[in-house]
Design brief:
Shape: globular
Largest sheet: 5 strands, antiparallel
Strand order of the largest sheet: 4-9-8-7-6
CATH class: Mainly Beta
Number of domains: 1
Order of helices and strands: EEEHEEEEEEEHE
Number of strands: 11
């Protein structure tokens, strides 16, 4: 299944190729202050593929905080965080914000809260390499 998404102004767009067999999509709300303040709900599937296009790169900030092992791509024009990436051993992994999906039936989302406080850095990177989208292209 192909899912299109974007920030509010359209500067950041993405196409997410979601595995066809998936009936629902897990949408996790991280308890960190950044995600709470942005209202982000993240999803990933290791079998998915993601293509992100940034139309005006000078209008996007890659914001890293805390462990500085992930970049939240914030559109400077509209303030939406459409995706987050993590470079692990030379490979780019990503999660996408389901709130940035365009024309998507939200009843297919399974909402849950998650808390990664106290997770060791190496465990965090292993979790991402296992669970995040590993087929990522950013142009």
């Amino acid at each position: 299944m192909q899912i299109h998404g974007s920030c509010h102004c359209g500067n950041v767009t993405f196409d997410l190729q979601w595995p066809v067999h998936a009936e629902t999509i897990a949408a996790r709300a991280c308890s960190c202050t950044f995600c709470r303040k942005h209202g982000a709900r993240w999803t990933a599937n290791a079998s998915a593929a993601l293509s992100v296009h940034i139309h005006e790169p000078t209008l996007v900030t890659a914001y890293a905080f805390g462990t500085e092992t992930a970049d939240f791509h914030v559109c400077n024009r509209c303030g939406v965080v459409a995706c987050c990436t993590s470079l692990i051993e030379g490979r780019l992994y990503a999660v996408v914000n389901v709130n940035a999906f365009d024309n998507f039936d939200a009843s297919r989302l399974v909402l849950a809260d998650v808390d990664f406080d106290g997770e060791e850095g190496s465990a965090r990177l292993r979790r991402r390499a296992t669970n995040w989208i590993g087929d990522v292209r950013v142009t």
